[in-house]
Amino acid sequence: MKIQLSDHFTYKKLLRFVMSPVLMMAFLSIYGVIDGLFISNFVGEKPFAAVNLIYPVIMILGSVGFMLGTGGTAIVSRLLGEGDRVRANKYFSLFICATAVSGVIFAAVGEALMGYIPKWLKATEDTYADCQLYGRILLAAMPFFMLQNVFQAFFTTAQKPMLGFIVTAAAGCSNIVLDGVLVGACGTGVAGAAIATCASQVVGAVLPVFYFASKNSSLLRLGKPQFKFKVLLNACANGSSEFVSNVSSSVVSMVFNYQLLKLFANSDNAEYGVAAYGVLMYVNFIFIAVFIGYAIGTAPIIGYNYGAGNKEELKNIFKKSMVIMAVLGVIMTALALGLARPVSMLFVRNNPELLDITVNAFYICSFLFLFAGFSIFASSMFTAFGNGFISAFISFMRTIVYQISAVLVLPIFLGVTGVWLSTIISDVLAMLTAIIFIILKRKKYGYV
């Protein structure tokens, strides 16, 4: 039976509805990890470290897609809840067009700066060329990367979450196959991995364009956009938390890499810390993607019921989501602890010293999943309410303030262990910040 945004959601129905965006985000993260697996196993640790140095920059430029997607869905889902489907489709088309244009602009800016960026990132002589090469190739597909991010959010709003997963799976499979052919079989190295990623992003962007531009059974359809600068600004404000989260997470990754390069500077392999952190981030992408997928899946429900004035359903969704975040946190922590050595061996099994560093970091960082889901859901919930300020504030505090402060201060007293512990400290503080806002705004939005 088809699930609609206007339904009453039991645990079973809620989990069924969010399953597709959860799988979509998890699969998207998994196929992003494939590049790392092929590079670390077929090319080497130094190119692997090079990719991990430059990738945060690509995420910063592509984060506008996340912003317009999440901020736009909040506006479109509220209009659908109010029964204004015509305006919802016009604004949907506006957000897609704005994303494509932004992608072209950011790609051009990125290409112009790519000659300097590896130097700014303190890339070593062994990683400089691969940093630049990987970055330049990925920038060529920036418009497709941003569109792919936008469509991931709108598939759920269109009540077609499973179709969104199918598109993501098709993109992921193309990446995996091309990685196997270009990197594994043909030995094209970092360039082949970047080309495989670009091809998958083209698939993930073009297929949704064809679907939404043609007659379809969803709530949304691409057509002539209604240009309103104020609406774009509202979408950017609503989605600013996702923008802040992605940009700040990338900045945090750069700070982590800088600290690790400094802490390992006296060793024969200064890139080992960056490589170990790269493995952690790949796994972190997958696990955090589950929380993000749940947030993407529930945001249209929250936005719809807020627009319809259905406070009882808002209370229902909020209560169930808190329980689900807690259960998911326990499950993911247990999985991370159990998989620490097997997963690390997938990337660095041929290097015992690097393997020990990675496994030790894994054991410490696993506990962050107990806390991360609450702040991610709370940030998304306030975005769905149209309160971009609180949403962005939670994301900003979690990353820029808490994570950077912790990673700069703790290593002074604890060395490398302080770098790994900083991930837990920041998520605990972010959860407490989210709880404060949830308490303060409970009467205004009526979710408690």
Description:
The chain has 448 residues and is mainly α. The protein has helices at 11-42, 45-81, 85-113, 117-120, 128-140, 142-157, 161-185, 189-213, 229-238, 240-263, 272-308, 311-348, 352-365, 369-384, 388-414, 416-440, 442-445. It has one domain. 84% of the residues lie in helices and 0% in strands. The longest helix has 38 residues, at 311-348.
Topology, please?
Layout: H1 11-42, H2 45-81, H3 85-113, H4 117-120, H5 128-140, H6 142-157, H7 161-185, H8 189-213, H9 229-238, H10 240-263, H11 272-308, H12 311-348, H13 352-365, H14 369-384, H15 388-414, H16 416-440, H17 442-445
* N- and C-termini, Cα separation: 29 Å
The total of beta strands comes to 0
- Approximately how much beta-strand content do the residues carry? under 5%
Number of domains: 1
Helix content: over 70%
**pLDDT average, as an integer?**
86
Structure, briefly:
With 448 residues, this protein is mainly α.
